[in-house]
Write a structure and sequence with these properties.
Elements (H helix, E strand, L loop, with lengths): L3 E5 H10 L1 E5 L2 E4 L1 E6 L8 H8 L6 E3 L3 H14 L5 E6 L3 H4 L2 H10 L3 E7 L33 E5 L5 H13 L6 E7 H5 L1 E5 L6 E2 L9 H13 L3 E5 L1 H5 L3 H11 L3 E3 L14 E4 L6 H9 L2 E5 L5 H4 L11 E6 L2 H4 L5 E4 L2 H11 L7 H22 L9 H11 L5 E4 L4 H8 L8 E3 L8 H12 L5 E6 H6 L3 H8 L4 E6 L4 H9 L22 H7 L3 E5 L2 H11 L6 E6 L24 H14 L4
Parallel strand pairs: 2-11, 4-5, 4-6, 6-7, 7-9, 8-9, 12-13, 12-15, 13-14, 15-16, 16-17, 18-19, 18-20, 20-21, 21-23, 22-23
Antiparallel strand pairs: 1-10, 2-3
Helix pairs in contact: 1-2, 3-5, 3-18, 8-14, 10-14, 11-15, 16-17, 16-23
């Protein structure tokens, strides 16, 4: 019945994606900004042909690594505050499995990502096909099943008409503020090429707008009453504030009710670090100011945060005997964590409603004064570690200071793993919303450069600076070549401390011997002397090795006027970390060891665990 159009399943996918739209600042734009694709036998014929037909409406972008292209798509969505996104298609087998790690990043960070890996033949006649994983006891298993636990929604398309309910469900998940996360549609390679008479209405343009979930009246009244009763409240703002585009509401709320704000890694930049009531980073990588207020807080208003262990100091940070947590979150799972009093709602709608319910209420100015004093002390400490010093090799903190001094306030910083996120969380002064882009939910090494590519695609008018350690650089650097190929300029600062220095420090802190982390402590015949400058140049970038903080600042200034991606390399000290700020983190120490250092660390660990609540 009705009008139909005969298309292959792959053609139907691309036509459908092209017609999904959203509205931003009054302008209607495509939800999907493009399709990242690395073709193989499992997607080149049918999916490749379909993407070629729609290449003007849905640009196809070629990457060099499947995990990296998915990271770029994730970073794009995060930089767009989940309003726009990208899709990725691969062949079966290795190509599909390479995206599992990236799917984990999107899953943990609640970010939209559409994965379209090829799969085995639904008809099974040519089995086993190239790259097919065969399970001796289950004929339905394929490599793509590895994507199930890291997908919010997973479907295997074994008939062309199945794509219709699957794509409708896909859009619901990708655009839902509570369910948001990666979607995997595992598309059997023979079915991609099969035709079906699709209803034309399936391809009608649809506009997806953010759902603003209002708070329940009873939950709202309970939250307002708890805040009114609190003497030392603290707001902890997470990434949900940014995704809900609620930064103005957060600012108004904290100013109206005089409650200090601490920030998670994902929430940093939701309120500028220089705001009088912002005490910046909280938790394991937090400032001394934020953590002091958190320890004293009798009420914590957690807005849009998962309350992971780095935020809560493994639940040893909040030391007030009667501390209460209000979980203002669009996802009930997060809102009720650790016996929190839930306030299930959108961050923007929730802060507005909560502020109205608190009309006339303001916390005693004593709390704001204490926050200001603590912050002033912290800022002095931060300046002391970010200022250049006469040392043989600079610290990460000194490099951070140089990068900060060399950039405009609206530049966007990108990082992900190693020691840098801990230093950046407390030392970087974030300004505009989204100017601080850290992937620390999954702490995925290799995200940095590919993530920078995605951020620059989302924010092309902003300077994007990627800070990355040598360990992460060596894991995944191929998208430097992609950035040059696409004309997408990044500034990449590589801090070479010759190994996995962050984990080496953790190893030492738990009493372990220096073992298998720094290159000098790993099994080797000859220590590698990696020339990162030459390597970056070989990928098409402009590159320079600098010897000092002064040279770094000069090189950063020059990089801003370069016409393509620029990589700046500097050697750093692997052992120096900022001692100011921070908090205990629960990393299990062995109960039994012949090493006295481990025995001492175990004793300290058992004492620290008694503070968990």
């Amino acid at each position: 019945m009705g009008n139909t159009v005969r298309l292959t399943m792959a053609q139907a996918v691309t036509r459908f994606l092209v017609n999904q739209k959203t509205q931003i600042d009054g302008k209607t734009v495509p939800v999907f900004a493009g399709m990242w694709a690395i073709f193989g036998h499992g997607n080149v014929a049918a999916m490749g042909e379909a993407l070629y037909q729609y290449r003007d409406e849905l640009p196809t972008l070629r990457a060099h690594n499947e995990q990296a292209m998915a990271h770029a798509a994730i970073a794009f969505a995060k930089a767009c505050f989940r309003r726009r996104m990208m899709a990725c298609t691969t062949s079966i087998g290795p190509g599909a499995l390479n995206m599992v790690t990236a799917a984990g990043v999107a899953h943990v960070n609640r970010l939209p990502l559409l994965l379209l890996p090829g799969d085995v033949f639904a008809g099974r006649l040519p089995d086993p096909v190239l790259q097919q994983v065969e399970d001796f006891g289950d004929g339905t298993v394929s490599a793509n099943d590895c994507l199930r636990p890291v997908s919010r929604y997973f479907d295997r398309i074994a008939r062309p008409e199945q794509i219709m309910p699957a794509l409708r469900r896909t859009m619901q998940v990708l655009t839902d503020p509570a369910e948001c996360g990666p979607v995997t549609l595992s598309v059997c390679q023979d079915v991609q090429a099969e035709a079906y008479d699709f209803p034309t209405r399936f391809f009608d343009e649809k506009i997806w707008l953010p759902r603003r979930i209002e708070p329940d009246r009873n939950e709202l009244q309970a939250a307002a009453s708890a805040i009114r009763e609190a003497e030392n409240p603290l707001i902890i703002a997470g990434g949900g504030v940014l995704y809900a585009e609620a930064c103005d509401q957060l600012r108004d709320f904290t100013e109206t009710h005089t409650i200090p704000v601490a920030l998670t890694q994902a929430g940093k930049s939701a309120l500028p670090d220089d705001h009088p009531l912002c005490v910046s980073a909280v938790g394991v990588t937090g400032t001394s100011a934020a953590n002091a207020l958190a320890q004293e807080a009798d009420l914590v208003l957690a807005v849009g945060t998962r309350l992971q262990d780095f935020t809560t100091g493994s639940w040893a940070l909040f030391q007030h005997p009667d501390v209460r947590i209000i979980g203002l979150n669009v996802q009930p799972f997060d809102a009720g964590k650790h016996d929190a009093q839930p306030l299930v709602c959108d961050a923007r709608a929730g802060l507005d409603a909560l502020s109205a319910a608190l009309s006339g209420h303001s916390t005693d100015t004593r709390l704001a004064n204490r926050a200001a004093e603590l912050k002033e002390t912290w800022m002095a400490d931060a300046r002391s570690v970010t200022t250049p010093a006469n040392t043989t090799l600079p610290s990460d903190a000194q490099v951070i200071g140089a990068v900060q001094r060399s950039l405009d306030d609206n530049a966007i910083l990108v990082c992900a793993a190693g020691g840098l996120p801990g230093e950046l969380h407390k030392l970087w002064n974030a300004g505009d919303p989204g100017s601080y882009h850290l992937e620390y939910g999954f702490s995925c090494m290799g995200y940095e450069i590919a993530g920078g590519l995605g951020v620059k695609m989302a924010r092309p008018d902003e300077e994007v600076v990627v800070m990355v350690g040598d360990g992460s650089y060596l894991m995944l650097n191929s998208e430097i070549a992609t950035s040059v190929m696409l004309g997408i300029k990044l500034i990449v600062v590589v801090l070479d401390n010759r190994g996995f220095a962050c984990i080496n420090r953790l190893q030492m802190g738990t009493g372990g011997a220096n073992f298998n982390n720094l290159l000098k402590d790993a099994a080797h015949v000859t220590l590698p002397n990696v020339d990162f400058r030459a390597h970056a140049e070989s990928l098409g970038a402009i590159a320079e090795k600098v010897e000092s903080i002064a040279d770094l600042e000069r090189a950063l200034g020059a990089a801003r006027s370069n016409d393509r991606t620029t990589v700046i390399v500097i050697d750093t000290d692997p052992l120096i970390a900022t001692e100011h700020g921070g908090h205990w983190w629960d990393v299990a120490v062995p109960e039994i060891s012949p090493r006295a250092e481990v025995q001492d660390a175990r004793h300290a660990y058992e004492l620290a665990r008694k503070r968990q609540n």
